[in-house]
Specification:
Blueprint lengths: L3 H12 L6 H6 L4 E3 L5 E7 L6 E9 L2 E9 L4 E10 L5 E3 L7 E6 L6 E6 L5 E6 L4 E6 L12 E5 L15 E3 L1 E2 L5 E2 L18 H7 L4 E8 L1 H6 L5 H20 L4 E2 L5 E2 L3 E10 L19 H8 L19 E6 L9 E4 L16 E3 L2 E3 L3 E5 L1 E2 L2 E2 L2 H15 L34 H13 L56 E2 L2 E2 L5 E3 L12 E2 L18 E2 L2 E6 L2 E5 L1 H4 L4 E2 L10 E3 L5 E3 L13 E2 L3 E4 L2 E4 L4 H10 L3 H10 L1 H33 L4 H10 L29
Parallel strand pairs: 5-18, 12-20, 15-18, 15-19, 19-23
Antiparallel strand pairs: 1-11, 2-3, 3-4, 4-7, 5-6, 7-8, 8-9, 9-10, 10-11, 13-14, 16-17, 20-23, 21-22, 24-25, 26-27, 28-29, 30-31, 31-32, 33-34, 34-35, 36-37, 37-38
Helix pairs in contact: 1-10, 1-12, 5-7
Length: 731
């Protein structure tokens, strides 16, 4: 009987089943899966002494071919970077981190692209690929889909994210401020902090002191909740997630933002860097040392307070603490009340106020507090945030730490910028940028504070990307003896161009006219065609476009905003695209007036191009959604997610043998129980009537209850009892 539940589950798995990615379909319109072997890696250069290398990575995702040129992100870690793992007793053990596996780079042929990624020893790719027209994210599948399965990563476009965190009561909040006397101040959502009449406008001597360096070093901490869920109980995976998140936000948001200072000057190239990492692999048994790392149900306000409290016990000098960095941030996987995802202490331009960047310890009651802290959770209810959602949460909280309140609902700052007071859609270009209001507030803080910022190289020479605005003529990367480009990112005397940076350059000279500089593989995703060099310029000529009405990967080439773009046929007809299921999975579908997803028109030839992802794990081929083979567990979850009356009938029709077996088991179980609890118990009660009293006592010692069915084979001596001949006749 104990094997029955296992049998029933097995039959369901074998005959039907579903995919375990049902939560992903609540967050993504579509996505694709990647096996690590689908990525091709080529090391173009490697320095055995330093480990520095240049890597080329090739793969196909979402119907598009990618060639990435990557090099280690050399400015991501502080020179004295250290990582620890901590057990339940607070014992810290050094953990080695391969810093050369965190990459930055670009997509070949796209000068406006940015790639930030981590590549493991076994070829696992985690990162963000930003092109001139789209943003792609790749992350480990184990965060969302329980193993086993036959792939390692999921990939999706920013435009595919549903962002169901938007416009709800998910308010990214900030923590309290402390005034000159150590008292909490009440922060208003759209105001400025004023302490004793001082607004933060100070002399230029403070300006020079505050801005002598440009990097805020961060102390990153993962509690056990985060280690278990996001890190998959693996210290390396936990560190990779946290450090990669800092890398993406540093390059995409902070280093690219220009902040206005009080004296009217502008400052840019400010950013964040990792100096300390600590991962709690078990919940702490000493609440005085790490009070934030517990298994209780504390809300986010309490967690931030605990994280801001320095250990009360004496600690050795090497103990990493929040006050030893510009900022400290706690990563967790707690489900907080009101669906809050983040909380951070906001910086004030007042020199007397603490909070945010460069805060110093402060005695509050019997505790020593430091308010350069923030908390981000990567759990919303029962689901895990996607990378792009986690980036928004983290950047928003660091924005508070740097001195920005929530954007006011006026002055042009209300259009869902990064510091919008609610979680937002993420598909608006403003979502990842600071508004002018935020820039001004942060500029005020930077004008008076930032004394704990450290130096980092401001030039980007060495990242393989040509930044002419930085005075670069070429950029072949650091540590390479390139024949065209020197270590100062200047062309060598005999060189006209750089093979690394110029698409139409061969052996440091202009390439011939027969060289392809833009290659389109398969159906075009952007309405461009193959383009060759013109023999005169080192850059690829203006790309040739397909004519209007031509087929492209996701629809039809059409004129949009003055340029030819690949847009869906739904948009051509002023409708909104959607994705059908079942037999229509590879047809062009749009939302109708009742918001039902239906095929466009009655033309059966209006099908999606080959290679377009369809349903959960398939790709369109000649109008049919072809799915990859799935294991039983994947089938089980897919069936449960799509469970309905029609689905059950269809499953029975398609799986006659399994359905018969299940029905047989479902009929046999209740009949067996009926016999056990009704008929056999009656046999036992009748049998007791023929026993002597002393034998009844013996029998009752062997049974738990008087009326419990007694196993006949345990009767001491059945032969000496006179039993009616019809006793064993079925009643």
């Amino acid at each position: 009987m104990k094997q029955l539940p296992i049998l029933i589950v097995f039959l369901f798995v074998y005959t039907n089943g579903v995919s375990p990615d049902h939560h992903l379909h609540n967050s993504l319109r579509q996505f694709t899966t990647l096996h690590k072997d689908e990525l091709t890696h080529q090391v173009l250069y490697h320095d055995q002494l330093t480990g520095y290398h240049l890597r080329m990575v090739k793969f196909t995702m979402m119907g598009r071919d990618f060639q990435l040129r990557l090099s280690p992100h050399q400015k991501l870690f502080a020179s004295d970077f250290v990582a620890y793992r901590v057990d339940r007793h607070g014992n810290k053990m050094l953990h080695e981190v391969d810093k050369n596996r965190f990459y930055s780079g670009h997509v070949l042929g796209d000068k406006r692209s940015l790639v930030v990624a981590h590549i493991s020893e076994v070829g696992m790719f985690t990162g963000m690929v930003t092109t001139s027209d789209e943003v792609y994210h790749i992350e480990p599948s184990h965060r969302f889909i329980k193993e086993p399965h036959n792939y390692h990563m999921i990939a999706y476009r920013l435009s595919d994210v549903k962002f169901d965190i938007s416009n709800k009561s998910i308010d990214f909040e900030y923590g309290p401020n402390i005034d000159d006397d150590g008292h909490f101040t009440k922060s208003q959502p759209f105001g400025k902090i004023i302490h004793n009449g001082v607004t933060g406008h100070h002399g230029n001597h403070r300006l020079k002191r505050a801005l002598k360096s440009n990097t805020c070093q961060m102390y990153l901490v993962a509690d056990t909740h985060f280690f278990n869920a996001i890190g998959n109980n693996n210290v390396d995976d936990t560190i990779i997630f946290m450090v990669s998140l800092v890398s993406r936000n540093d390059l995409r948001t902070f280093r690219e933002t220009t902040f206005p200072l009080n004296n009217g000057t502008l400052i840019t190239r400010l950013g964040i860097q990792v100096s300390l990492v600590m991962v709690h692999t078990e919940f702490s048994d000493n609440p005085d040392r790490f009070p934030y790392n517990t298994g209780d149900g504390a809300d986010i306000d309490m967690i931030l307070t605990r994280f801001s409290t320095l250990p009360s016990t004496a600690t050795p000098p090497e103990e990493p603490q929040q006050d030893r960095a510009c900022l400290a941030h706690l990563f967790t996987y707690r489900a907080f009340s009101q669906s809050r995802l983040g909380l951070a202490n906001i910086a004030s331009p007042s020199l007397g106020a603490t909070g945010g960047i460069c805060s110093t310890p402060l005695r509050v009651g019997s505790n020593t507090m430091v308010y350069n802290t923030g908390v981000s959770s990567f759990r919303l209810g029962s689901r895990t945030l996607l990378l792009v959602e986690g980036d928004l949460v983290f950047s928003h909280e660091i924005g508070h730490n740097w001195g920005s309140f929530h954007d006011p609902p006026e002055d042009g700052c209300e259009n869902q910028f990064l510091m919008y007071q609610f979680a937002h859609n993420g598909d608006n270009p403003n979502n990842f940028d600071f508004s002018n209001c935020s820039k001004e507030m942060i500029g005020e803080v930077l004008s008076t504070k930032g004394n704990c910022f450290t130096d980092i190289q401001t030039t980007k020479c060495g990242n393989f990307i040509l930044e002419e605005g930085e005075g670069e003529e070429c950029d072949a990367g650091l540590g390479r003896d390139d024949p065209c480009c020197d270590d100062e990112c200047q062309l060598r005397p005999e060189a006209v161009c750089s093979d690394v940076n110029h698409d139409c350059c061969t052996n440091c000279s202009v390439a011939s006219t027969n060289r392809l500089c833009h290659i389109v593989t398969g159906t075009s995703a952007d309405c461009t065609t193959d383009t060759t060099c013109n023999g005169m310029n080192v850059t690829c000529p203006q790309l040739e476009l397909l004519p209007e009405g031509s087929e492209c990967l996701f629809g039809e080439c059409a004129l949009l905003n003055g340029a030819i773009n690949c847009i869906s046929l739904c948009e051509v007809n002023d409708l909104t695209s959607c994705q059908c299921a079942g037999d229509d999975a590879c047809r062009v579908c749009c939302y109708n007036d009742t918001m039902d997803c239906k095929p466009l028109g009655n033309d059966t030839m209006m099908i999606l191009s080959n290679g377009v992802p369809c349903q959960e794990d398939g790709k369109c081929e000649n109008g049919t959604c072809v799915t990859e083979p799935q294991d039983g567990i994947q089938k089980l979850f897919r069936f449960i997610r799509n469970l309905s009356g029609d689905a059950v009938i269809r499953a029975i029709e398609e799986n006659i043998v399994g359905s018969v077996l299940i029905c047989t088991v479902l009929l046999w179980v209740p009949v067996s129980l009926l016999i056990h609890f009704l008929i056999d118990r009656k046999y036992y009660k009748r049998f007791l009537k023929y026993l002597r009293e002393e034998d009844k006592i013996k029998i009752r010692r062997l049974t738990a209850k008087d009326d419990e069915m007694f196993p006949l084979h345990l009767i001491p001596d059945k032969k000496k009892y006179t039993i009616p001949q019809d006793f064993f006749t079925v009643i």
